[in-house]
Structure formats: structure tokens, C-alpha cells
Structure prediction request, 538 residues.
Amino acid sequence: MSRMLEMKNVSTYYGNIQALYDVSLHIDHGEIITLIGANGAGKSTTLMTICGLLKPRAGDVLYEELSIVGESTNKIVSSGICQVPEGRLIFPELTVRENLDMGAFLRSDKDGIARDMEYSYELFPILAERRNQPGGNLSGGEQQMLAIARALMARPRLLLLDEPSMGLAPLVVKQIFDIVKKINKESGTTIFLVEQNANLALKIGHRGYVMENGKIVLTDSCETLLANEDVKRAYLGL
Amino acid sequence: MEYFLELFFGGLTRGSIYALIALGYTMVYGIIELINFAHGEIYMIGAFTGLIVAGVLGALGFPGSAILVFAIVAAVIYSAAYGFTIEKIAYRPLRGAARLSPLISAIGMSIFLQNYVMLAQTSDFLPFPSLLPELGFVKHFKGILGSSDFIIIVTTIVVCVALTLFIKYTKMGKAMRATAQNRTMAQLVGVSVDTVISVTFIIGSSLAAVGGVLIASHIGQINYYIGFIAGLKAFTAAVLGGIGSIPGAMLGGLVLGLTEAFATGYVSSDYEDVFAFALLVLILIFRPSGIMGKEKIQKV
Prediction:
């Protein structure tokens, strides 16, 4: 497996407040990588830094061996990195269909877009039923499905998922995680999963990172992390 | 009845122009939450461009309808260029700054443009040629509806329909709606927010320019100050309709125009502004977000 994305000693700030300290991590092609940590640990900041919405003050982000620091977000998105942000950020007044259309904003292959839209509806039949309803009318779980489907419309090579389980019923969470696994297996999409629900995330991931106060404090295979005493105590509630 | 209809169509004409200008306020506000106080000046610059082009072409002996078309096209291009540039130099550097800063910058821009036109042109009223043709069939409505009223109303309807279709069905239109609803997410699906903002300014300025040429030709005179008053009224219309809402701006313009026309016709022209702003106050008391505006719901 070869290197897809690498963060090297990245430090990111909000104004004068430092949110990431010297963060280094890497993601290889085809992997599911999980990043776990408490609220405010810097997980979302890590994703925003990758997507170019925040600019690191120090360090480098390499994607396919090229630095993407300072690139505009739409350039980064067009190179195949796609994010499902925390809180899903559905366009509330666009219909489900229009939300999916927006996911394919940078594509112009009409046939491919139509096919992928059908695929989204197969993956999430509820979206097909609601295709003409405004996104804001969907339930939390449906919005999460829409957010994932919208991200897939861009045909991402690297899919960043920010807390997809947040605020959802356990059954819906399981359904969503099954689909994440399926996306990874069937289309070989590399996945970077950020979660507070450490138990679930570590079960589907290959390797994991643990973040505390803006620093990566631990990294290992997910199996090892699941068995780690500190992780058990702090994140698994065991 | 005839008097009522006359006032009604007069109000529609006036309201159409308010609507055309209000669209620029509301679209810019929808995307970057800024009241572009220089927007009235864009309208004024459109009218001046129309006057200059009409003067030159008139001297060259062009036919009336060709002059009208060229005057509008030139005004649109020139005003769009101004709108685009103003955003670039006065607002873009302040994006991310405290909200008051771009607002002050907008007021500064407005004062600058007024004074620039006053110095470059004149502070006196200039006669504006009547470019709008006399339509034969309008004669049947003599005393109720003039040719220029008819042309202004119809042009506004056409422009509003075109804009609505653009926003609803084109890729750029969808990107604009998406950016207005959630800027971060729009960026995350690959929308270039800078481009969307520039296009918004260009469209808003173009609409104001169309309004500027039409109404100047209808009234017959312009000066450097017309943008201030029209801008204030159109801004009122935008707030009335619900700032940020495109159909709201259209409706707000018409409501304001009709209110003024009836106030003038049945009470006194001295009270026109009193009624206009009393209406604004009333609507804001009972529907703070405007007629078509949505109350902001904070979602987690």
C-alpha cells in the first residue's frame, strides 16, 4: 500500500489560539483510518486543515506526495478529497436531489452523474422516496445519509467523515457504518473516520490515532487500540 | 376607477424600479450578509452611462429603439464592472473582519462614487432623453397607462422571470443558493465562493443599471444624487420583502411602489415618504423578518 495523505508536524491556530500541536499522521490507499478523541481535542480542526478551510501555521500536508497547503478548497476537492462535515451541513432549502447535484458540482459528465445518483438511491432508498423534499425536512439519520451520498457524488478518492454517528439512534448508526465499510470495500475509497464513538470506529478501522488536546498521543492498529488499557478507560468506558 | 387604475399602474412602474434595485441588495445580503450601501450609486452610474451613450448615438443619428438597446447594454456592462470592482477593492479585503468594517467601507464607497460623479459630470440636473418608444396599442389606455409605464413593467417582469429561472436551474444559480444557505459546505463541495460573490455583484449591478436607464428615461432628468434616494427606497423594499429573499425583493418593491402611489394620489405627495416608511415600521413590528423572509432557525 502506498501513501495517500500525510500530515507532517502540522500546527493550526484559530487566531492566537493553537488548536493542533505538531500533528503527524498518514493514510495509505484503501485504508480505513480512525481518529478518536474527546470533544474539543482537535479532530474537526484536523479535517478542516486537510480541506484547506484552515491554513496550518507550521508543518505540511501532502496528498499523493504533493503539498496541498495553501491550495484553495475547491482545488483540493477537485483532486479527490471530500468531507462529510460535522453536523452534516445539508443545504436546508435545496431538495434532496439538488443536494446530491451539488455534491457533483465539479463534475460535468452527465451520464456518470445520473448513474451515481441512481447508486445513491440504491444505497439509501429513503433518499429516493424524498428526492423532491427540501433537505431541511429530513430527520437526523436521513440527513446523515444524504450528507454521505452527497459526498460520494463527487467520486472521492479520500472520504473524510466527521462524527457520522453524532445524535443518531444506534440502529441508524449501525446502518451508516455498514455502508461506510461497503464503500471502502466495493469502490476502494480510502476513508478517514473521525469519531467520538470510539468503540464503533475502532471496530471498522484498520489503524487508529488517538488525539488529546490537539496532539496525537497514540497510534496503532485498531485491534491493539481496542485492547489498550488507557483507551479502554478513557474512550470505551470499560 | 380610472383614477385608481392610473395610480395603480404608476405605482407598479415605480415599484418595478424599486424591485430591480432591491434585488441587488437582497442577493448580496443573502450571500455575504452585507448591506451594500454603494448599490444605489451603481444604479446612478447606470443612468449616467445611459445618458452619455444616448447622447453620442443620438448625435450620430441612430434610431430611437437602437439607442435604447445600446444605452441599456452599455449601462449594464459599465455598472457590472463597477459592482465587480467595488466588491474586489472595498469588501473582499474585509471579509472575515468584524461586521461593522465592510458596512463602513460600503458607506465610504457610496460617498466616494457620488462625489466622483458630481465632479466628473456636474452637480446640476441633466435632462435625460425619452428613449422609450410610444407603443400604438397603449393609446387605448390613455390616462391610465403610458407607454413608458408599460415598457418598464414588462421589462421588469421579463428580467425577474429570467433571474428566477437562472437561480433555479443553472449550475451557478444552484451554487449561489448553496452558498447563501451554507458557505462552508458550499466550499466543501467545490464551489469557488469568490466566483459566486463576484457573479452576485455583477448580476445585482446589471439589474440596477437596467432600472437606472428605464426610470431616467421615464422621468426625464438625472443628477448625481438620484442613487441615494432610490437606493434608500429600494433598500426599504428589500427589508419589507424580507432581506435575503429574491421573491421578497420583487414583492417588497411592488408593495412600496403602490403604497407611495396611493399615498400621493389620495392624500398628498408630501406624505409619500411618510406612508412608505410607516408601512416599513408596521411590517417590521408584526413580521420582523419581512413579508417573505424566514425567521432564522439555529440548527445544531
User: Anything to note?
Assistant: Chain B has one domain: 2-286. Chain B touches chain A through 18 residues (CB under 8 Å).
